[in-house]
Amino acid sequence: MARKTILIDCDPGQDDAVxxxxxxxxxxELDILGITTVAGNVPLAKTQRNARIICELxxxxxxxxxxxxxxxxxxxxxxxxxxxxREGIDGTAIYDPTLPLQTQHAVxxxxxxxxxxxxxSITLVPTGPLTNIGMAIVREPRILPKIREIVLMGGxxxxxxxxxxxxxxxxxxxxxxxxxxxxxxxxxxxMPLDVTHQVITTGARVESFANIGNVTGNAVKAMMEFYNRFxxxxxxxxxxxxxxxxxxxxxxxxxxxxxxAVNVTVETQSELTMGATVTDFWRxxxxxxxxxxxxxxxxxxxxxxxxxxxxxxx
Length: 314
Ligand code: RIB
Ligand code: CA
Known about the structure:
By secondary structure, the protein is of the alpha/beta class. The chain has one domain (4-310): Alpha-Beta Complex (Inosine-uridine Nucleoside N-ribohydrolase, Chain A), CATH 3.90.245.10. Helix content is 37%, strand content 18%. The chain is built from twelve helices and nine strands. The chain has a nine-stranded mixed β-sheet, sandwiched between helices. Helix 5 links the parallel strand 4 (122-126) and strand 5 (147-153). Helix 4 crosses helix 5 (131-139), helix 5 (131-139) crosses helix 7 (175-182) and helix 9 runs antiparallel to helix 10. The chain is globular. Residues 11, 13, 15-16, 40-41, 127-128, 153, 162, 168-170, 243-244 line the site of alpha-D-ribofuranose.
């Protein structure tokens, strides 16, 4: 089967890191055009560095890494060091990576890569605030027909918000960019907290990463041990939700997931509910479908896939 051509936009973050490693373990199925980074979990200077660190951890030297927007389109940047640590991928070694950062701005790379592509050929995989994607759409709307689909991590409905009572972090940080993306007219698959809260990295699953027996598995274990502590305290669970790898897992094994065509509209006016993903799950409005809302997952199958692909790395 032909490889899917994808472009990853992220804000590493330990869960973004595991998402990248899953993608690196599936390059027989995924043609990764580039990795763009955005301010989110930690400031841009760290997310772009962290993406390059994870490339080196995964033994990847041939995928270009770009830095994008260092703040949301309209609002002040909100970061999440309290979750991810001061460096963003705390738990693994932090250093100045050898892998170079590309000099081109991420938004320009996204536009250029899409403008060169055939219609319906590129899948965008954003797992941070949607600033780079929103800016690319505004800068060059002609990229839209090139996008096959957007598989994003963000939003929440039944789970409630994780940053405010009504908003999930990625959407909350840049609701205006999210609004542009959800109105862009291209197929969108949403991995909200409603599904990511079903893939919990329990102690046994953390140990399974170490049992892989490679450097990458050990690094994932160490990052998860750091990353889990916040959500374990917050939710009283054994482990925390592994949000971002759900996007890549969906591309590799869509049958692990179940979802529904819905309308998602993003709140950009009210400070009380800023960044809420108002999801019409039961067709109580005339708003047209603009997204597939993923709400179910085979969690054991997800972690089996994750372990299998991480085992392919150094
Ligand atoms: O709300 C979870 C999302 O926000 C994840 O993508 C995490 O990495 C942070 O970016
Ligand atoms: Ca993220």
